[in-house]
Amino acid sequence: MVDNTHNQYGVAPDDGLLNGPVITGAQPAIKQSSFGAGALTGLEEIRRRGSSNLQARDSSGYWLASTTHGEMPFLDDSSYVFFRNVKEYGAVGDGVADDTAAINRAITNGNRCGLPTNCTSTTTMGALVYFPPGTYRVTTPIIQYYYTQFVGDPLDRPVIKGDSNFSGIALVDTDVYIPGGNGLEWYINQNQFYRQIRNIIFDLTEMPNEITSGDQSYVPTGLHWQVAQGTSLMNLDFVMPLGGGTKAVGIFMENGSGGFISDLYFYGGNIGFKAGSQQFTHRALKFQSCVTAISMIWDWGMTWQAIEALATYTALDTTAYKGSSGQGTGSIAVVDSYFEHVPYAITMQMNKVSPNILLDNLRTVDCESIVMNSGGNTLLAGKSSGEVVVDSWGLGNWVTSLNGSVSFNYGYLSPKVNKSESLLDPKGSYYARSRPQYESGFTIVNARDLGIKGDGYTDQTDKINNLLASNVGSVVFFPAGVYLVTDTVKIPVGSRIVGEGWSQIMGTGSKFSNEASPRVMVQAGKEGDSGIMEISDMLFTVRGPAAGAVLLEWNVHESTQGSAAMWDSHFRVGGAKGSDLSIDDCPRLDGVNDKCMAANLLMHVTRHASGYFENVWAWVADHDLDADLNADETTSTATQISVYAGRAILVESQGPCWFVGSSSEHSVLYQYQLSEANDIYMGHIQTETPYYQPSPTALQPFTIGIFNQDPDFGSCIANSSCIEAWAARFINSTNVYVYSAGLYSWFTNYDQDACLDSEDCQENLVDISYSQGLWFYNFFTKGAVHPFTPEGGISHVSQVDTQSGFTTQINAYLAFALTGAEIGGLDNVKGDSHTPANVSIVSLPCTSVAASSTFTMSAACTAGILQLPTSGPNASMHNDPPGTPKTCHEVCDFWRLITGTCCGSDGSISNPVEIPPRCDHSV
């Protein structure tokens, strides 16, 4: 994400005195007062969530504290420490001593990336900062530097406790406002990648209710979280005072481009979560006895899944318009949630640009008003005493028919969503599964202890494969590092893999270089496997060129619901030291440097696989994360690069699959493609088109047809902005559920001025062909003429008809909910245009022919195919594919491909005929 337009909080708190972490000073004893009576209920709740003792604790039984840790190989500093235990830097953790300086020393040691070193991002100076059990009293903010994970002991979570004399923006600050800097911060908010905090309790009960630093006033706040992709919060609690005019806020997130959050608990306070960002996914958040659970500052779109609000005055307040130029809440999707004793569940304003609101499976108890226009009427009534279940209700722009007409409505949606059972848990909610941390009962096998190196230079392929084959069923831990491989890493079914600070598997070498013969870098199971597959905290990368690399092929199908899953794991292609795809290797330019063709496909979920994928970011770098950039820059345009990956995420699974909080950016042909897929949940997804397109267009530099149903942009006529990467394609797919999608096209050949204001950086974003059961909610787009362009002569949806604030907003797109399986069009892919149903000239029976094999057709067959009409009254019938044939199942219809007769064009045949690569099954 580079764009910074309309992405600023209106009033930046930049008049304070602090411009960095306090790292010096002793730890004086501070008188410890008892918790107020109002906090006890919250602390008891926390104990029930897993922390059994809130007093000083020194021991830890969690395996991460005592295992061998990793390194940062491309830093060229052998003294640099990746794993930092705060107690080894002087933190006491007794709840009495001031541990601020010690914790900040643990974080900053080694001249890490921040304003003091004039650094805005890095891939070489990461750190995992570990908090053993204890209570850590702090008096000024703990500053989390770039590329840092804070991890507490999940068996006995540590407490970060604000002192009664605390001064600063929050207990933990992730992006420091520069005093007097007119809103400038240490980092560029929409490029705030690679951050994580988990297993920590934030205690605000003793902090002053009003905080002043210089000319800046603050309210007591637990976490200032201003981040982008590749970030997460998990298993955190925010304990705040009850009532009495408290101003406490659990999380303050006023900006950014995230991101994923799960398993948080907020008790007491004025506001649990003050939220503002371009987009975000939140799952399993519980708010109890807050005045307001969630207060929206602004967004383009957010998904709130499995939210509980108990005894709060308001669950979701969307009445603010505090983004730049008055941007308010663009859209919210509230899914599988529960509100109890909440008088005014959701408040909004209709006198300005109204938010788009989607409520799906929301259960309320004793909620007088579910959706209320602030100062006006109630749009969706509840019951002051009793239960109301809202199955599917929306407010905003609706498209419910194939004619593409847009209407602004609110009410219960029709048709009502018909959910696939395979995607639901026993209670009827969409299935979800939190990341495992393997607290107890597992054998941990440390790869480094067994001689495997993460030095980024030594080929580890055979060693890794031997390790994985020998330890099925154990948890294989890859300490921080870069594990270089020159051939496929094969992960057997039954495996559990966990990294440390996004341990890298980096593919390189000749086996990954042939674009025409793609080779898998990491293979999760074999075709037909069923069972357990768990991967977390890993990063899949390449050292270029690697035009043939498929970074991850996912083959395992679940044996029990959600047994095949991946969390907090990402793809990065280029833009990092050691990748040979940096600004020195692949500077921004016109044309293509073949040495910068870096991947063929990032992630492939194959036909017989299923998977639960949570917080997965597939990023082809648009800029170099290690290049020098002045800290006061507001964008990273000065470090832009041109790196090419053919395709991002290809899903051919028959289900079930869940993509929870995923994003995909800058691949050449598409960011997401669902091809003959079924039973897929996606919420939230986010995409960006490559910044260099249309120079070159999406037809370069990769060959079309290498993978099934590649787009060929055949319907694009002399309009280069049409020949750009699809944000999402839904081809021959059924039962797909999307809850929020932010699809952006910011540039034309790196130039925003030429297209952004006119909203024509790109012609089309979403392609639909021969698909049905598509339930799409809260799509918001930027820079495209047509957000939806279904094929088969179906009317497109226009940006002009759906603009709402800074982006378009489409609350419900249900045109293909109940129809569509027989509707397709001219922009089908080479290798996938189906032979017209009335053609009977092919005499071969349904016969299996292997890819790349050859056979000879008879003269009569050849002549018949070439005589397909190209004009006249029956041309349209012959040349518009009728959908997937009921017989022979021509997944890749080579008849039209090999004859060049697709869409009625003249062609020729030469014998013998070669079956195109990757075209398989029947002919």
From TrEMBL:
Signal peptide: none
Main location: secreted
Pfam families referenced in this protein's UniProt entry, alphabetically: Pect-lyase_RHGA_epim
GO molecular function: polygalacturonase activity
InterPro entries according to UniProt: Pectin_lyas_fold, Pectin_lyase_fold/virulence, QRT3-like, RHGA/B-epi-like_pectate_lyase
Listed GO CC annotations: extracellular region
Domain Rhamnogalacturonase A/B/Epimerase-like pectate lyase: from-to ranges: 83-313, 444-512
Record keywords: Secreted, Signal
Record's subcellular location: Secreted
Protein's name according to its UniProt entry: Rhamnogalacturonase A/B/Epimerase-like pectate lyase domain-containing protein
